[in-house]
Design brief:
Elements: H1 2-23, H2 29-32, H3 35-39, E1 45-48, E2 54-57, E3 68-71, E4 79-81, H4 85-96, E5 108-109, E6 115-120, E7 123-128, E8 133-136, E9 144-149, E10 155-160, E11 163-168, E12 173-176, E13 185-187, H5 192-198, E14 206-208, E15 214-221, E16 227-232, E17 239-244, E18 254-261, E19 266-269, E20 277-283, E21 289-295, E22 301-308, E23 314-322, E24 333-336, E25 340-345, E26 352-357, E27 362-365, E28 386-390, E29 395-400, E30 409-414, E31 421-422, E32 429-434, E33 440-447, E34 450-458, E35 463-468, H6 473-477, E36 484-489, E37 495-501, E38 512-517, H7 533-544, E39 548-552, H8 562-565, H9 575-589, E40 594-604, H10 606-617, E41 623-627, H11 638-645, H12 652-657, H13 660-663, E42 670-676, H14 685-696, E43 702-706, H15 716-733
Parallel strand pairs: 38-39, 38-40, 40-41, 41-42, 42-43
Antiparallel strand pairs: 1-2, 2-3, 3-4, 5-6, 6-7, 7-8, 9-10, 10-11, 11-12, 13-15, 14-15, 15-18, 16-17, 18-19, 20-21, 21-22, 22-23, 24-25, 25-26, 26-27, 28-29, 29-30, 30-31, 32-33, 33-34, 34-35, 36-37, 37-39
Helix pairs in contact: 9-10
Length: about 725
Amino acid sequence: MNNFKNSIFVLFFLSTLVFCQDSKHDLTVDWIHTDEAKSIAMVHRYIWLENNTAVIYDPSKPLEERDFKILDPDQPDVLKPLFNIKKAVQSLNEILDDTLDGLDWPISFDSKGEKALYNFEGDIFLLNIEKSTFKKITNTLAEEKSSRFSPDGKNIAYIRDNNLFTYSILTNREKTLTKSGSETLLNGTLSWVYWEEIFGRQDIGFWWSHDSKYIAFLETDESMVTKMHYVDFRPQEPKLITQRYPKTGTNNPMVRIGLIDIKRKKTKWAQLEPYEYICRLKWHPDNNRLFVQTMSRDQRELDAFYVDRKSGKMLRKIFTEKDSAWVNINDDLYFLDGDKFIWQSERDGFAHLYQFKDNGQLINQITQGEWALRSSGGPFWLRQSVQAINKKSGKIYFTAMKESSVERHLYSVDLAGKNIKKISKEKGVHSIGCSPNGEYYFDKFSDSKTPPKLYLHKISGEVVKVIDKPQLDLIVDMELQTPELFTILTRDGFPMPAQILKPADFDETNEYPLIYHVYGGPSAPTVFNSWQGSSLFYDNILLRNGYLVVRFDHRSATAISKTLENRVNFMISGPIEMEDIVDGIQWLKSKGYVDPNRVGIWGWSGGGSFTLNAMTNTSEFKAGISGAPVTDWHYYDTKWGEFAMKRPQDNPEGYEKTSFVKSAKNLNGRLLLIHGTYDDNVHPQNSWHFIDELIKHDIMFDMMFYPMRMHGFKDIPAQIHRQKKMIEFWKNYL
């Protein structure tokens, strides 16, 4: 009888939850993935041209209604069409024998805004902007990729079959620059580990010299790299897919720098001191030398060299950056007149700017204090904070976390390190794009309660033009709840940035189940005073189903300093971070409005790892969802896995203590494990091994594997299904 009553109660409760989910303004999982939902956070795309005008483009409109406009900051209210888009689309359709409705943003523009590159059906197409006509550049069975204009706009470089080619726009002739490309020898294109971990998911494997006469490129031999295999179920006879992926402790690809004289098609190879990784290349303005950065296998030393472009010989070592844990790669390198340059370093424990002489002698530290430079967009592991340098005024414009670790603002400072000034006015996160002359900038910014807006400013901060206002009508109509920002003190008093979402009818006398969303990687915060897009919509569905949703960042994840990052050296995603997480959860459980017996945790990738860490090494959680987790660092790649953990043979204790395969037998609470079977980043073997341990110890769990999905699910049906599955799980077990 009691079981019958309980069943009736559960059915009533679940039907009420479903009703709540669908009754308020159609806020549903399906709606989150509509164009209407996505458009709320969209603003114009833009690119600055060398004449200090900008091309702007509104992606929120239907494709057939989009257009490219020229914005002149000196006449901001006069927007002119960049070209006749109807004529261009008609020209393209005649070549493709298709009926395309419009044009998306191109792969690239030339610096003058006279030409643009597109890729259709694996071939390169050139748009003549003045004539509004297309021309098909390549016509091959193999796919061309990574196409880019030379700085003078006269040539295009691209990759085909792992070889590097150029195409002369004036003569319509293609040149083959390399011929050695094969399945395992790559010219000008990146191996997986370089693409993911070093260049931030950008296939940047070659660099034009400023005078368009040379190309520096990476040649990669990955024949010695360990292989991963995936089975595509769709052919009647399943297809085997192979990926070269260097696991921790195994061989990395061998990479060297080639310097090609475009006219003579001759290659010289850079002659460097021993290294494990090539991290960055940048042409000096004199076009005679390259600034090259290399790194040791343990990643504690980064060397900087000048390399001669004609001979490939190393002219001199400039300096070596050292760190007791690891050196972070950054993109803040800028050459000044008088053989000087600006460089970002974390040598004092915080990311700051320094001025050096060409020989590596330090001139002065430009920014300083207990705060850090920080990028305002892109993957968290890419670090580029300088937005403009005005050589006449001697001012540098950069983004940083000086105001708050949950905000990003634009600042200026003198080269001498004096007169630092905050330029951005509104609280929140500001993403900046400065004009080439440094006199204007676009500012895409938002806060936790307001969707993004895009303004054009003078460099002083004065608003010149409002490009995009925040879309508030739908937000108000849907009665969306937005995060409350606060801090949680750890046992030793560290203030962890935190946010909580509460339902509209929140009653602090009630006890609510709570869901903690975690990522947790070093200097990879989740708490920002910014608009949180589709995740906010999804979290609001959870609110309407009766849950509270919280995020907080343990101290190593905050990005406040390198000193805090270094706490996890030798023991990443392990017990050190878990101390802060347990402190945060116990603090939340002490609040009268949180049901301490119904706390859940979930995360993806690194957050999936922390979910397993929390559920196998603590008893704080009733249920958890782990998406695409690293379960043992033996299964992850060299560059990321070893930056803190080092090689397994050098840190066996660390690998043992951070293996959730080893702690799987201690699983507390109900677990849902989610993974894609074609995850080329966090391989499914991570989950397979963890699952096998649960089976050995007769532990029940839930599992959802998605056929041939990669690390980030791209197709909307899988995204919708995954989110609905998660809601179903929370209802059943929280």
